[in-house]
Amino acid sequence: MHKILIADDHAIVRNGLSFLINQQANFQVVDQAADGNQIYMKVEQNPIDILVMDLSMPPGESGLITAKRIHEHFPDVKIVILSMHEEEEYIRQALQNGASAYILKSSPDSELLNALNKVITNETYLDANIRLSEESAEAINAGGANELDLKEYNNLSNREKEVLPLVALGYSNKEIAQQLFISVKTVEAHKANIMKKLKTKNRAELIQYAIHHHLIEL
Predict the structure, then answer these.
(1) Does CATH place domain 151-217 in 2.30.330.10?
(2) Judging by beta carbons within 10 Å of its beta carbon (0-12, 13-18, 19+), is residue 37 exposed, middle or buried?
(3) Domain ranges across the chain
(4) What is the homologous superfamily of the domain 2-141 according to CATH?
């Protein structure tokens, strides 16, 4: 039985997907998440085989970044993107960041089920309704999708990557501490390290950096 985590910011979508997937013989939804930080914590706490996630779960970390973090730290977890975004930029970047499949929310249920059955055999799957330009198709097949320069971001610790979107979205130190179960002083230390590593002088510059590098969803 393949264990699945469903991630979407709408409870009705999560519940609908859970109902569909739990009807399949080889798959079981074992947990749900509503944002990027929840996804990471739940994957960390409970082993899963497949993550089915939306790309847009505002306000919070961009799903593209969440996918990248999950892939880097839990490479055995298969990532299936289920998104309303049909733009080639999103598809290319999602695959570059570690997704094994990309499905459109406008497609029939069968596309998601096809994707699940493909990724468990270590295959990549693109929604049959996705139409890519020849250039994008070649880039994806070659593993050469364009990627923003995230060298500075990649130098952040895992906890700093969790704190960053919350700071950029305007959460107070106390709110961040409560959400991540750490002390206010620890949050302040992380914020200082983030500013230093990203070479930003204030929150305005940090927000600009986060938006430019698609790190957050507003």
Answers:
(1) no
(2) buried
(3) 2-141, 151-217
(4) Response regulator (3.40.50.2300)
| Opening angle at CA 89, ends 85 and 92, nearest 5 | 100
Residue type, 14: R
pLDDT digits (tens, 9 = 90+) for 54-83: 988 877 788 888 999 899 899 999 999 999
pLDDT in tens, 2-47: 999 999 999 999 999 999 999 999 999 999 999 888 898 899 888 9
From CA 173, how far away is CA 177, in angstroms rounded?
6
State the amino acid at position 113 in one-letter form.
L
Give 79's strand partners. Answer: 51
Task: Name, in order, each residue with C-beta under 8 angstroms of 81's C-beta and a sequence gap of 6 or more.
Answer: 53, 54, 55, 63, 67, 94, 99, 101, 102, 103
Give Cα 103 to chain centroid, integer Å: 14
Residue 125, CA distances (Å) to 121, 140, 158 in order: 11, 12, 29
Mean pLDDT, the chain, as a whole number?
A: 87
Alpha helix (H) ranges present in 78-150? Answer: 88-96, 109-119, 134-141
Judged by DSSP in three states, 158 sits in: helix
